[in-house]
Write a structure and sequence with these properties.
Elements lengths: L15 H7 L7 H14 L2 H5 L2 H12 L6 H14 L2 H18 L5 H8 L3 H10 L7 H10 L4 H16 L2 H23 L8 H30 L5 H11 L2 H21 L2 H10 L1
Length: 282
């Protein structure tokens, strides 16, 4: 089975036009929410996360398919996965779900308010720092940082970051993201193997439950420490300011709404692999 190795750190911004639309009297229009959701998704770099889904499933399948599955079947399955997890299609669905969540909630201006706040210099600086996670040398630097002796200040910063991580729902997003891909991989594998090689419902449930628990435990331990390393050059006062922002109700709501939009989109995409596989084989 496979898991995504890169932590995903969420952040957001909003264009002036969408902000202006959201500042009118009364709740924002659906168009304003859609514009805000689109900009938020782009600035969260959600497309980059979604683009990992298809290749991750195909890579996992290549390592878990038995030899009885021939090359033609493997190629058809890869094509079906790529078609199902087209990043642009997934992105559009996430935008639609996020906009709908904002438009129908009791907090209709939360998404716009959060995006507007995150367009300020401090959040933008933190957004830039979070991109370090994708650096090929990140792992080596992170390990060296971990090996340094802990200090009282470092412990204080870790406590700030633990709250920040909770408010940004990074662990929940990554856990649900990986589990959704795992479920899709198992279902896709069952489509091309013989009945006696399939993963039955009970076995699948055990695999999913164990994987969910293992991924969540690992992320709960690693994500705060990764953020501690990412923000190592940010002074504690500034770090606390950013954490306070992320702890605001409008930010907590927006982070959860985006995470839900991403994971529900991936979960709903899974069953389409079988449909697309049938089309590929015709």
């Amino acid at each position: 089975m496979t898991s995504i190795r890169k932590a995903y750190l969420t952040v957001a911004a909003l264009t002036f036009a969408a902000l202006a639309a959201g500042c009118a009297l009364g709740p924002p229009s659906q168009q304003a929410q859609t514009s805000a959701a689109s900009q938020v998704v782009d600035d969260y770099k959600v497309s980059g996360l979604l683009a990992q889904s298809g290749p991750a499933i195909s890579d996992s399948l290549s390592r878990n398919l038995p030899d009885s599955v021939d090359d033609a079947q493997r190629q058809a399955l890869d094509a079906a996965v790529a078609r199902t997890y087209d990043p642009q299609r997934l992105r559009n669905t996430v935008v639609s779900r996020l906009a709908d969540a904002a438009a129908t909630s009791d907090n209709q201006k939360y998404l716009i308010n959060a995006a507007a706040e995150l367009n300020k210099p401090l959040p933008q600086r933190m957004i830039g720092l979070e991109s370090r996670v994708a650096d090929p040398n990140f792992g080596d630097g992170f390990q060296a940082f971990q090996d340094n002796p802990a200090t009282p200040e470092r412990q204080q910063r870790l406590e700030i970051i633990e709250q920040l991580s909770d408010d940004m729902v990074v662990g929940d997003l990554q856990t649900d993201f990986n589990v959704a891909l795992l479920e899709s991989m198992i279902a896709a594998r069952n489509d091309v193997v013989s009945p006696d090689e399939q993963v039955d419902a009970a076995q699948k449930q055990r695999i999913i439950a164990n994987s969910r628990d293992g991924i969540r435990a690992k992320l709960n331990q690693q994500v705060p420490r990764m953020l501690l390393y990412v923000y190592r050059d940010v002074d504690t006062k500034t770090l606390q300011q950013y954490a306070d922002l992320q702890h605001q109700p409008f930010m907590v709501w927006s982070n959860k709404a985006l995470a839900n939009a991403v994971t529900s989109t991936l979960a709903d995409a899974g069953p389409r692999v079988s449909q697309n596989l049938s089309a590929e084989e015709q």
